Amino acid sequence: MLLTRMLTAFVGIPLIFICIYFGGLPFYIFMFAVMFFCVQEYLTICNKYKPHVILSLLMASAFFVALQYCASSLNMVAVSAVIMLLILFAVEVFGENTEHSVGRISISFLGVFFIPLAMMHMVYLRDMKGGMQLMLFMFIVVWVLDTAAYAFGRMLGKHKLAKSVSPKKTIEGAIAGIVFGVAAAVACRYIFMHDIINLRQALILGFVISIIGQFSDLAESLIKRDGNIKDSGKIIPGHGGVFDRFDSYLFAAPAMYYTLHLISRAY
User: Alpha-carbon distance 29 to 163, whole Å?
Assistant: First the structure.
């Protein structure tokens, strides 16, 4: 298992860095694939609610494309949400089985709206000035905080963080994740981002990503707990599913994007 994980990382990590480096279409295609598999795995997890799988994947794909070409227009996002809900309601209204119809609509909509919107913020970040460095910054901070939270949680963890959702996560581990995440952010700033963000901005971004990233991981754990599964999928050998690997970015990517806009004006 360890060898499989190492071989997968040996191939996967360079692929991610290559896509980040080139940006543009290669990174967009990469994120489209990530989004698609995340939605597919999410729908599989929620199978007990009988979500509209094919329809949901089609709508999620169309929404992701629309988000790219409409440059995050709030009007477009709102209109897309209304259209997707209208379609989902129409399928239920004219369908033969109305039992649990509201549940199917809710589960399907969460997948087709939130996941593409969250993942598109990674594309928005890459398209910003200094986008390559910003993406590397976020990936490094998340990887460091995840590793620190896991290691210190195992060594020192005594107080459960959210035992009903993820019994192994501890408050001590979460605090270590924040400390090391912020430290990683500061290190990134001095190593390759000194001309993009200042020290105060690095501290703020590191703090936001470290907190929101861990919460985002718990949010995905909540979904898996409801589906009574351990891994979201098996597509990545030794690592589980794509949803498992990118869960931290569901809230962290939008949080970093909007925090950047706020602090760039304030500082």
Answer: 37
